[in-house]
Write a structure and sequence with these properties.
about 325 residues, TIM Barrel, eight-stranded parallel sheet, two-stranded antiparallel sheet, carboxy-lyase activity
């Protein structure tokens, strides 16, 4: 029997979360930073783009019709990263995650055979993250979505150790999806904030996880990196060289950096069939999962055709199309 086609990178918009934070101190400053990072030309395009896609982001019937048109059987739905709100204080952050988890679960419950969900945890408050993860799992979600960093904290921060331990213990899926690049105004034209910023943030975050030894201490983590892991998988040779040549680079992790690619998962959203082939070579055909970034304009309207364009061996094609995801989501 052929495995279902599973898209692990799809989003939902949650008005409940935005209503909660509306008018709170910190929101205006966060939006101003986002505006500086993206630049006025990109904001002028992004606003209408998102508004046009609100039905696909909120209406399950519209979502299912779009999935049918794409030939996608199952979506793993995560909140729009605009809902992270990592500026929020502890009480607000706890409520943001509670609402996001419950609203995402309710959205997916409208079509439980076809929609599986991921929730949120407050990356800016490491002490609250295990509790928020447990809440997400209690709603029937598969795990949670996180960004590449929180203000003042990288993913290598020891404060995250209890969260990694809890995620490993529960078998929760972690979806690493950056939001905002700290190169700031250097990327504020031509949508470089996304085209360069997102793959840069992916590469930095994954490097922190690898070089700090997080993946040595928690080998059972189930972490999916969006956007094919950014620049790291195709440039991992430079990391391997540094690990071998320099004691400061090699002191934190036990093995060659490239070996850790086979402990991670990556979505297929790289927008280039040659890069996708290299990702499969570097990480292994069993570590790449179909991803579309549904329904945003930086995604792909036809993820299966984008995968087919890589001309993988047939067994690898079907593994990426859905077999790998089916095995990963069957965590019980």
């Amino acid at each position: 029997m052929t495995s279902p086609t599973v898209d692990v990178h799809a989003h939902v918009l949650l008005p409940e979360v935005e209503a909660l934070v509306a008018g709170l101190p910190g929101l205006a400053e966060a939006r101003a930073l986002d505006a500086r990072r993206n630049g006025p030309e990109s904001l002028a395009v992004s606003g209408p783009m998102v508004r046009e896609r609100i039905p696909r982001l909120t209406d399950v019937t519209v979502r299912l019709a779009a999935m049918d048109a794409q030939g996608v059987d199952v979506q793993v739905v995560s909140p729009s990263p605009s809902h992270y709100h990592y500026w929020a204080d502890e009480d607000t952050a706890r409520e943001v995650c509670r609402l996001a988890n419950e609203a995402t679960a309710a959205h997916c419950a409208r079509a439980p055979e076809r929609l599986r969900g991921l929730g949120l945890v407050p990356l800016q408050h490491p002490g609250l993250m295990p509790e928020a993860l447990d809440h997400a799992l209690a709603q029937g979600l598969l795990g949670v979505e996180i960004s590449s960093h929180a203000p003042g904290r990288e993913l290598s921060d020891p404060a995250y150790e209890p969260f990694w331990a809890r995620a490993e213990e529960t078998g929760a899926i972690l979806f690493l999806h950056p939001f905002g690049c700290t190169l700031d105004e250097r990327l504020d034209r031509w949508y470089l904030s996304n085209t360069v910023g997102q793959p840069t943030e992916n590469a930095v975050a994954l490097s922190h996880l690898i070089f700090s030894g997080v993946l040595d201490r928690h080998p059972g983590l189930k972490l999916i990196a969006a956007h094919g892991g950014g620049y790291l998988p195709t440039h991992i040779g430079r990391s391997d060289h540094a690990w071998s040549a320099r004691p400061d680079a090699g002191s934190g992790c036990a093995h060659l950096p490239s070996s850790y690619l086979k402990r991670l998962y990556f979505d297929s959203l790289v927008h280039d069939p040659h890069v996708l082939r290299e990702l499969v070579r570097a990480a292994g055909a069993d570590r790449v999962l179909l991803g579309s970034d549904f329904p945003f304009d930086m995604g792909t309207e036809d993820p299966v055709a984008a995968l087919r364009a890589a001309r993988l061996p047939e067994a690898d094609f079907h593994a990426v199309r859905g077999g790998n995801a089916a095995a990963l989501l069957r965590k019980d």
